[in-house]
Each structure stands twice: as C-alpha cells, then as structure tokens.
Amino acid sequence: MPRVVPLPSDELVGRLPTVFTTPGTKSSKSRGKGKHASKDENKRTVRLRLLPNGAQERRLRRIADAAAKLWNGLNYARLVQFRKLGMVDFKGTEHEFYHKYKDKLGVNAGQVINLNNWMWYSFFKLSRLYKQGKLPRFYRKPSPPGFWKDRLLGKRLLRILVRNDRYYIEPINNGEGYLVLKDWGLRIKYAGKIK
Fold first, then answer.
1. Rounded to whole angstroms, how far apart are CA atoms 48 and 175?
2. For helices 54-85 and 90-105, angle between their N-to-C axes, nearest 10 degrees
3. Cα–Cα–Cα angle for 109, 115, 116, nearest 5°?
4. Closest Cα to residue 23, out of 168, 175, 182, 149?
5. In this structure, are residues 149 and 156 in contact, taking their beta carbons and an 8 Å threshold?
6. How far is C-alpha 102 from the geometric centre of its chain's CA atoms?
7. Which residues contact 17 (CB under 8 A, 6 or more apart)?
C-alpha cells in the first residue's frame, strides 16, 4: 500500500518535484516481532529530490496531473454515491476509472485507486466508531476523503504514485543517482541519501 508522507513545514520545497516511494525494504530499526507486530513496520519510505531536465519535468507534470484527475474524478463519483445512497460501489467505480486512465498511468493507476479505496474504508470505519462513541473526545466527526487540490491557488496538487516494482534506483555516488521509471521510460537524476 503506498503511503503519502507529508513534507515537514520548515523545509522549503521549490518547483522541483519530490517523489515518495515505499520500496518494501527492511528497515534498520524494525522493532516488532511476533503476532502483534504491524505488517508495515518492516518497511521504509525513501524521499528523493528529483532533478529533471525541462522535457522530463513537463512529462512528470503531465503524469502527475493525470494522477490528480484520476483521484479527484474517482473521489467525486464516490462522494456523489455516498451522499445519494449512503454507500459506495467500490468495484464499479474502480473498474470505470482504471480503464479510463490506464493508458496514461499504466498499472500505477491501480496505486491511486488503492490509496483512494483505503481512504474511503478508513472513513467508513471511523464513522462507525464515531456513531458508537468509541473515538477519543478530541476526534471530530469524520469526513470523506478530500480532493487533491490546493485550497489557496485552486489548482490540483501534483502527486505521482509508483508501484514498487515499476521503478528502480541507480546510485552513482553518495547522495546522487538516477531514478528509472519503467512505465514511462524516464531516467531522472536525483539528489538525496537513501538510508
């Protein structure tokens, strides 16, 4: 399951894209062993600063825009269903939007849909707990997943989710290398240490 990692508020992020990946490699700080360990505890997230040239950056922006359109369209369709019927047809919306965007995003369209599914399931579970009075007092009433949109600028937030077998990293030296995105035939220079 891909994870969206928020950026620290004190770190300035320029116009260059940042990619977040969950490669599924063992973390050096894995603690949980046994039946109570979380299944995500042994995974780590790698954050890299991409340094694309002009053509690569335009292509990445088109890919990220398609991913945002997929998220927002899928989320809107599910929100309309939820408000009309009180439930969501996951399979129907998933099938419709996957086939609409698979030409642009490839199998990575499934990653965006999986993240949206996870967010909606989480919303339903929190709503159920809220109605039963089992949530802590500081929790407010849960709301459905939001859209990938900047509220101040009114533009889509650009994010790319890449399945863990659809990319690989070619390190050159300490802190530099290339990120190869298989589905789009891109080889992008990066800066950032992989811990």
1. 9
2. 170
3. 90
4. 168
5. yes
6. 16
7. 50, 52, 57, 60, 61, 64, 158, 160
pLDDT at residue 7 greater than cutoff 50: no
C-alpha–C-alpha distance, residues 41 and 192, integer Å: 23
pLDDT 10s digits, 43-62: 666 778 899 999 999 999 99
Q: Are 167 and 106 in contact (CB under 8 A)?
A: no
**Residues, the chain:** 195
- Residue 11 clears pLDDT 50, i.e. is over it: no
pTM greater than 0.70:
yes
| Residue 71 neighbours by CB under 8 Å, 6+ apart | 112, 115, 116, 147, 148, 159
